[in-house]
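Thread: Newbie trying to understand structure tokens

Hi all, I'm a second-year student working on a class project, and my supervisor (Dr. K.) asked me to get a predicted structure for one chain before our next meeting. I've only ever worked with sequences, so writing a 3D structure as a token string is new to me. If someone could post the tokens and maybe explain what I'm looking at, I'd be very grateful. Here's the chain:
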Amino acid sequence: MSAPQDFAILWDGIPVEITYHQRRWNSDFDHIELRVPDGHILPVTETGYRSHFLLSGIAQEYGGVPAFVSAWLDHEAKSPEWQARKDAARQMSLF
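---
Reply by user tm_fold:
Sure, no problem. This is what the structure looks like when written as tokens:
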């Protein structure tokens, strides 16, 4: 088992910390953890934290972990649900 790798990206103006474990627990799966500062949201989490397992090697097919995470977030950001959440986060809610 290899040591975790840490990365940082800026996605849509949001700093995203990434921890990557290749072949987590000696399995056929890699593990990605995402963290964003308090008050920020991402299309894949409402809490600022996301744990995600994927088949080993998939991130490398995207050019590496940062590129995979950016592509994942870009894809999820196209959903109407994300657009509504993002717009709501920009406005102060009265209710």
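A couple of things are worth pointing out once you decode it. The chain has three helices and four strands. The chain has one domain: 5-90. Feel free to ask follow-ups in this thread.
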